[in-house]
TrEMBL record, chain A:
Coiled-coil regions listed in the entry: none
One GO cellular component term: cytoplasm
Species for this entry: Hymenoscyphus albidus
A single BP term in Gene Ontology: endoplasmic reticulum to Golgi vesicle-mediated transport
Protein name as catalogued: Trafficking protein particle complex subunit 2
Automatic annotation (TrEMBL), chain B:
InterPro entries cross-referenced by the UniProt entry: Bet3, NO_sig/Golgi_transp_ligand-bd, TRAPP_component
Keyword Endoplasmic reticulum: yes
Alphabetical UniProt keywords: Endoplasmic reticulum, ER-Golgi transport, Golgi apparatus, Transport
CC annotations in GO: endoplasmic reticulum; Golgi apparatus; TRAPP complex
The organism's place on the tree of life at top rank: Eukaryota
Protein name per its UniProtKB record: Trafficking protein particle complex subunit BET3
UniProtKB/TrEMBL annotation, chain C:
Record Gene3D superfamilies: Trafficking protein particle complex subunit 3
InterPro entries (alphabetical): NO_sig/Golgi_transp_ligand-bd (IPR024096), TRAPP-I_su5 (IPR016696), TRAPP_component (IPR007194)
Keywords, comma-separated and alphabetical: Endoplasmic reticulum, ER-Golgi transport, Golgi apparatus, Transport
Species annotation: Hymenoscyphus albidus
Region (Disordered): 1-42
Oligomer and partners: Part of the multisubunit TRAPP (transport protein particle) complex.
Biased composition (Low complexity): 13-23
General function of this protein: Plays a key role in the late stages of endoplasmic reticulum to Golgi traffic.
Pfam families membership: TRAPP
Protein name according to UniProt: Trafficking protein particle complex subunit
Top-rank taxon: Eukaryota
Amino acid sequence: MSYYFAIIGTSDNPIFEYEFGTAKAGGDGVPRFPEQARHMNQFIVNASLDNVEDVQWGGGQMYLKKIDRYYNNYISAFITGSNTKFLLLHHPTTPSTTSTRASTSIPANPTSPQTEEAIKQFFVEVYENWLKTVMNPFYTQGMRIDSPVFRGRVAAAGRKYL
Amino acid sequence: MASASKAARIGEEVWKSRVDKVNAELVTLTYGTIVAQLCKDYESDYVEVNKQLEKMGYNIGLRLIEDYLAKSNTMRRCTNFKETADMISKVGFKIFLNITPTITNWTSDSKQFSLIFDENPLADFVELPDDGRAQDELWYSNIFCGVLRGALEMAQMQVEAHFISDILRGNDSTEMRITLIRYIDDEMPMEDD
Amino acid sequence: MASSQPIKSPMGSQSQNQRSSQQGLKYPSNGKTIYHRPLNRSRTQELSQASFAYLFGEMVSYAQKRVTGIQDLEKRLNNQGHPIGLKLLDLLLYREPARSQTRPLHIIALLQFITTTLWRHLFSRPADALEKSSNPDTPEEYMISDNEPLVNQYISVPKEMNQLNCAAYVAGIVEGCCDGAGFPAKVTAHSVGKGEEGELWPGKTVFLVKFQDEVVEREAFLGR
């Protein structure tokens, strides 16, 4: 499974972006988006923002689960109290080797309950690190996050849960 | 050192029973907004921001000394600068910020010492801007230097205080150097005959 | 005790012309960054009210020198409180126990969050009252009352500025919370306790929260 993760601010502005691949089920952590798909990722994620808006007033939870699908791309969302959105596009890659574990593993099942739970845990860990960024008096709402330490934390969360 | 443990006891007792308290994060966030505002107003001229912080601290120090004397109930003046240092660290910082910075690095003439801050509530959550200059030029907690200068001036001591390291700058400790320049009680106004 | 020298990380010893933002921030040799610090560490920590009062007093004095007039000063204080409201909205929601960790969806939920969770965190007690405007022309207005706002306790306002309300800072925090949660509003602080003989709370302040039309419309649409 390849993942494209983005944090979108309140003016639909991208604050942070990160691409990675699954580390589970023998994955090597490298994203495998076809070249043309990579450009599409941003558009797909942006388009799904409308769906976020539709869903966010229906319930008060922060984890919105899967909110959109575009061909073989699934988009899950998490929204914070201050309306910052975490969007994860997951793109299952066709398995090149057959493995008996593949059929139930997270990378092969973008919509299973285990995957949903794993994505939630990923979001929650990123959320905690995002909060630490936000509490900095020098960070104002809408600023891009360029900290390599933050990036490292997101990467670690990706390896841990996805 | 006798005065150190006595100071520690005074500080602890005053903090427990005679200080009205408030949530620490309110103070941290307020200070954060002050520094951020200064950086904006002075367009990231961090040297100027340091000056402003010191000045603000000085204004605070002039008023804070009365509060300190009233709360700590020490009408007796410190007999030497070492005792002053103990009182600053274990009573002064304690009753206002609930921290007791470590006193160290005395010069042989006992006129200069360092305060090392293991904890600094004003700097919680803070990371300096990554603009290639802030970490070299800004002393985030510079307000402390001004507070000490103002408060000690009212207590008849002229001192100079400045930071020499700060973990926000990537140093391993946050250290302030304080120098006694002179006692001020020589300047009595001339009696009219 | 060994003297501590400011230890620069290896990157710091490189030549001056390599100082660019690509180099990134320097960190102490123990590698601790803001990301290592637990978010809840200072949750219940306390400092002296005096330290808040002194800082706030300087904040006001400094602002006074840069503005023309009281309204401008209040606006500036409001602006300084605003980002704090945004930060606290997220921080306090994060700290709520999982069951009550819900984003406010309706005006009342938001205002209850503000008058209880936010107020308790900042001032160790909930706000004294929350009321909706009874004026049919202004259904989008709500009032939060605080009998003894902390910010006004230590500020003695000079006579010529007696309309100034330093609680404009708290109003800014509230406004930041409202804006952040998706309920854009304008919040202003008004002193209501002064002037009357024997008034129980001379420092009483009312925070007027005026929500924008879109918020009222959405409330109606969502059916509450």
